[in-house]
Amino acid sequence: MIDLIEKLPKAELHLHIEGSLEPELMFKLAKKNNIEIPYKTIDDVKKAYEFSNLQSFLDIYYAGANVLISKEDFYDLTWEYILKCVDNNIIHTEIFFDPQTHTSRGVSFETVISGIKEALEDANKKFGITSQIIMCFLRHLSQEDALKTLDEALNFKDDIIGVGLDSSELGNPPSKFEKVFKKAQENGFKLVAHAGEEADVLYIYEALDLLHIQRIDHGVQSIKSDELMQRLKDEQIPLTVCPNSNIELKVFENYKEHNIKKLLDFGLNVTVNSDDPAYFKGYLNQNFINLYENLELSKEDIVKLVKNSFNSSFIEDELKQKYIKEVKLYEG
Ligand code: HPA
Ligand code: ZN
């Protein structure tokens, strides 16, 4: 089965590019850019990656992102992730980036997006990997700040397929961002949001009914409401679940407690993703392998999860059908 997991062509729909910054590149960029980081050795870094919840991770994740300064840095960051896509047989990826994490440090929106975009173009030329870019608003900041960021993004509209919402969930409900999501929708952006990672189902309802999102990032708390579960099933709203992330951030005590198999068996449109793989002990295949080893996923489950990802992606229909055909070769 591990062989099947590795061979299956896959899509990834929930990946923060800043969360793919491996310690080795962090050290290299810190040295090059003369930025201080709170670690002396790679071992120190690995020891620091012990999290108790989402916030304890975010503090370290934002500190790591400080080493990213030039367009070339964003290119290198993205290119390293692309090489992992090749290893993991990811043929389509939709990546998040957090512009405010960089513009607040004086790094321009253009520097960030042009570095990411150029690496993704090269990934397509060299490996045939297709991709989309989704810009996330930091929910611990104000809606005003998000509106300013959206205005900047309008200059790069052709490079950004959609907007999302990430960072500290508790205390920062989707309702705080109604206006900016409405404006993003009017400008033709697709809409997604992190909801129900740590916070309860009210946040998922708000994301659906106030922000009108097309995919829920995480959404694992849905299981607490029968009514919501039925709605997610009826409407087949995609959930981009990130198993390793949920374990590392203590959303579930251990892998055996993870609810993805229950969500899948109930008929929800769930997908598997790596979230911040440099911080959460593994890329996409490792997430699938951990699920398989702990939750007794069948071959049908694995193929269904992979098909769900392609079906829930923002790829145009013809290419989507081509990709799904490739996955179907592994059925039966
Ligand atoms: N949740 C919220 N914000 C994030 C995450 C996450 O899992 N990863 C990076 N930013
Ligand atoms: Zn995330």
List the helices and strands and how they pair.
Blueprint: H1 2-7, E1 10-16, H2 23-33, H3 42-48, H4 54-65, H5 71-88, E2 90-97, H6 99-103, H7 109-127, E3 130-138, H8 143-153, E4 162-166, H9 178-186, E5 190-195, H10 201-209, E6 215-218, H11 226-235, E7 239-241, H12 243-248, H13 260-266, E8 270-272, H14 284-295, H15 299-312, H16 317-328
Parallel strand pairs: 1-2, 2-3, 3-4, 4-5, 5-6, 6-7, 7-8
Helix pairs in contact: 5-7, 8-9, 15-16
The chain binds hypoxanthine (HPA) and zinc ion (ZN).
Hypoxanthine binds next to loops.
Question: Tags for this entry?
Answer:
332 residues, binds hypoxanthine, eight-stranded parallel sheet, globular, binds zinc ion
Fold and architecture overview:
There is one protein chain. By secondary structure, the chain is α/β, with parallel strands linked by helices. The chain has a single domain (2-326), classed as Metal-dependent hydrolases (TIM Barrel, Alpha-Beta Barrel), CATH 3.20.20. The chain contains 16 helices and eight strands. It has helices at 2-7, 23-33, 42-48, 54-65, 71-88, 99-103, 109-127, 143-153, 178-186, 201-209, 226-235, 243-248, 260-266, 284-295, 299-312, 317-328; strands spanning 10-16, 90-97, 130-138, 162-166, 190-195, 215-218, 239-241, 270-272. An eight-stranded parallel sheet has the order 1-2-3-4-5-6-7-8. Helix 9 (178-186) links the parallel strand 4 and strand 5 (190-195). Helix 5 (71-88) runs parallel beside helix 7. The longest helix is centred in the middle third of the chain and has 19 residues, at 109-127. It is globular and about 55 Å long. It starts with a helix and ends with a helix. The site of hypoxanthine has 10 residues, from loops.
